[in-house]
Amino acid sequence: MRYNYGEFEGSPFPTPESLFPPTKVVQFILQHGEKALDAMNKVEGDQEKQYIQGLIDAGFLERDEKTGELRLTPKMVRGLEHRALLDMFADLKKGSRDGHATITPGPSDERIEGTKPYEFGDPLSEIDVAATMRNAFRRGEEERRRGGVAGAPVLPIHINSGDFELHLTEGRADCATCILLDMSGSMMRYGRFYQAKRVAMGLAAMVRGKFPLDTLDYAGFYSLACTIPERELPLAMPKPVSMYDSSVRLRVPLEQAEANPAMIPQHFTNLHLGLRLARQTLARRGAANKQIFVITDGQPTAHVETSHAGVEMLHLLYPPSERTSSITLQEALRCHQMGIRIATFALIEDYWGMDWVGFVDQMTRLTRGVAYYCASENLGSTVVESYLNGKRRKSFTQ
Known about the structure:
alpha/beta, Rossmann fold, 3 domains, 7-stranded mixed β-sheet, 37% helix, flat
């Protein structure tokens, strides 16, 4: 490692406030998305303009050279993720483990009970000195006994490679995760999408810092589904409700709907397409372990089905139908057959409308996955603990 030294100019050292965006700015952007940037771009007061210019000078915002519109910089995105991570860990219970534990012993920072003989390539830092000395002492006694020599052991004790004993440690494996964010209209209620987005960004900061071998992808599902680049995640928002009919039965070719999304209402819940997109995304990842985190607040109300003519048709159905649930469960089963673990985080502020969690139970049993039921304000600690602990059981969080 090399160090470069220069003359101290007397300027103050950077503070957290100068390295990361202000907390109020973080909340404003995460809560309002693109509308937040539009509002910041249209401020009229001199003091407000000076504040925005300060964010630009600090490298948090930049203006498009052609349109003059404000954009988030990579520094701002990293700052948003860092703030989100700090907020999540503030809610975590003490003692959470920081790794993906497996049942196979392997190299890691966490020692477990027991030892194993040394094998070529094992880290010497994990040598159990006491067990190694006992092996050498016992071997020396056996050699003297076979040679007909009795009495006290001869010092010094000679150690060979067969005497080495190593501590057992928990195995660690790389993991590819795709976070599926429900972007349907109901996610605006109770600050659900704000919390979901904050958790997704905090998880990105944690994975980048603690698990460099892991990968994290984002996708959103509404009437359709789409991938969400990391830089665009802070600006993502749920789709506004555009229909209030008590019964909806719409069918349109999927290709046509994707080419012109404005032709259909966007606020439905197409978990089927979301799971399919996540499965295709994870298929391109070479990780040993793959998982999908589904954050949702309701039962699927949209699916895709191939017609007799071989055309994929998008179905938007409300109230939810058994056909939609069945096709969505079939896609979840495909994910499971590919070795993808599905963890569902059901947001249940609406206790009077919990009949939809029966679908979550079905999907969990079918895929042998895991389900968590929690309020949106508890989502951060629930997701992080699931990622760190690698739980394999259904959990209920108050």
